[in-house]
Amino acid sequence: MLALSFVALALSACSVSAAASGFVAPPAELFSPLVAQKVLKTATAFPNPAQYPQYTDRVNGDWIWFTPDQWTTGFFPATLYAMYERTKLCTHSNAGDASQWLSLARTWSTGEVPLETNTGVGHDVGFLSFPFMDELTVDPNNETTVQAVNAFANHLAGRFSPIVGCTRSWDTSDPTDFQVIIDNMMNLEVLFASEKLTGNHTLRDIAISHADKTMVNHIRPDGGSYHVVDYNSTTGAVIRQRTSQGYADNRMCASSKSDSSKVYKHTKKFDYLQTARRIATYFITNIPSDGVVPCPRPADSSAAMIAANGLLLLADQELSVFNFSGSAYYTNAAIKIVRDNTKLAWAPSWQSLLSNGTVNNPQHNNLTGIVYGDYYFITAGNELVSRGLASC
Ligand SMILES: *[C@@H]1O[C@H](CO)[C@@H](O)[C@H](O)[C@H]1NC(C)=O
Ligand SMILES: *[C@@H]1O[C@H](CO)[C@@H](O)[C@H](O)[C@H]1NC(C)=O
Ligand SMILES: *[C@@H]1O[C@H](CO)[C@@H](O)[C@H](O)[C@H]1NC(C)=O
Ligand SMILES: *[C@@H]1O[C@H](CO)[C@@H](O)[C@H](O)[C@H]1NC(C)=O
Ligand SMILES: *[C@@H]1O[C@H](CO)[C@@H](O)[C@H](O)[C@H]1NC(C)=O
Ligand SMILES: *[C@@H]1O[C@H](CO)[C@@H](O)[C@H](O)[C@H]1NC(C)=O
C-alpha cells in the first residue's frame, strides 16, 4: 500500500502539470510582493518580552499582540517557516531571503519553548507545535525542536482517557463531563510526529482512537458536524452532541476534513478518506453563490483558507488512490474558495494580508485580520506552486 502511494505521488507530479490547463486560475494576490513585505515588517518588530500577533483591529487592520500562552501563538512562527519554504519553491521571485526567514522563524519559535512545561492552552498544544514540526523538516536533528515536539505530544497524550477513547478538549468543573470539540482533530499531527521521533506507538494509538471516535460521534451522516460532544468520563457514554454558542464554529467545520485527510495519510484507512469526502462534499455544497464562506454571515476568510488547504490535502489523497477526477474536483474547489475569498478580503493597507476574518462572532469579534487566516493563505499559495498550478 505504501509503495502504491509512492507510485501515485510520482505519477501525480507529471499528470498534474500536464492537466494544469484544466484548472481554475489562482488569484495573483497569493504572490503579491506585499506578502513578503508585510510579514517581514511584522517579524522584525520583535517585541520584548515576547508577544505574538493574533488578530487585528477592525478599522486600521493593525495587529493586536498577545503574551505567548495562547492557542494561536504557533501560527506566526509557522508563517515564517512557510515563507522560508516559499523561497525554495519560488526562486527568482519576491519571496524574500531564505536565510533571513529561517533565522526569524527560529527566533520566533524560541519564545514558545517555556510553554513546553507551563501552558494553559490544553489540547491546543498541537497548534503550538506547528513551527517545531516545520523545523524538523529543515533540521531533523535540532535537539531543542525534538524536545519541543515530544513535550507537546506528551502533554496532549496526558489528556487522553482510555475509557472515552479521546483526548479531552476543555476542562470542566465537573470532571466526569468530558468535553471533546471537533477542533481537537487538528492537534493529532503532533502525536504522529512524536511517534516518528521516539518510536512510541502509544502516541499513534491515541491519535487513531481519537479520530475513530470523532468519526462516529462528531460527524453526522450528511457530512455536517457537531462542534462539541460531551462524554461521561466514568462510563465513556455520549451525554450530548451540540453546537457550542460562544465559540468560532465555522473555522472548525472547515478544518475537520483536512484532519480526516491527514489521519488518512498516516494510516491509509479507507474510512478516513470516506469521511473526508463526506465532510468536503457537505462543505462545498453549502458554499453560497458568491463563493464567500461561511453561509451565515459575517464572512470568515480564515475559515475559507483553512478549508482550501484541507481540500488540497484531500486532492492529494485522491491521487494516492488514482482518482484523478476526484483530485481535480477538490483542487478546483480549493482554488475557487481562495479566489472568491481573496477577492473579498485582500487588504493592501492593513498589517494583515486578509481582512474579513471572524475570530469569534458570538463575542462580536468579527471583520478582523487573523494570524491563522494569513498563514493558511500563504500555505495555500505554496501548495499550488508545488503542484505546478500557480507560478510565483
Ligand atoms: C533549533 O530550533 C530552535 C527552535 O525550534 C531554534 O531556536 C534554534 O535556533 C535551532 N537551532 C539550530 C542550531 O538551528
Ligand atoms: C509512550 O507515550 C505514552 C503517552 O505519552 C506514555 O505514557 C508512555 O510512558 C510512553 N512510553 C515510553 C516507553 O516512553
Ligand atoms: C457520569 O456517570 C456517573 C455514573 O453513572 C454519574 O455519577 C455522573 O453524574 C455522570 N456524569 C455526567 C456529567 O453525566
Ligand atoms: C468585509 O469587511 C468589510 C470591512 O472590513 C465590510 O465592510 C464588509 O461588509 C465585509 N464583507 C462581508 C461579506 O462580511
Ligand atoms: C473519486 O472522488 C470522487 C469525489 O470524492 C468520489 O465521488 C468518487 O467516488 C471517487 N472515485 C473513485 C473511483 O474512488
Ligand atoms: C459583528 O460584530 C458586531 C459587534 O462587534 C456585531 O454588532 C455584528 O452583528 C457582527 N456582524 C454580524 C454580521 O454578525
TrEMBL record:
Signal peptide region: 1-18
Keywords: Hydrolase, Signal
Alphabetized GO MF terms: chondroitin hydrolase activity
Gene3D superfamilies: 1.50.10.10
InterPro entries recorded: 6-hairpin_glycosidase_sf (IPR008928), 6hp_glycosidase-like_sf (IPR012341), UG_Glycosaminoglycan_Hydrolase (IPR052369)
GO process terms (BP): polysaccharide catabolic process
Keyword Membrane tagged: no
Keyword tRNA-binding: no
UniProt family annotation: Belongs to the glycosyl hydrolase 88 family.
Name of the protein in question: Glycoside hydrolase family 88 protein
Native species: Polyporus arcularius HHB13444
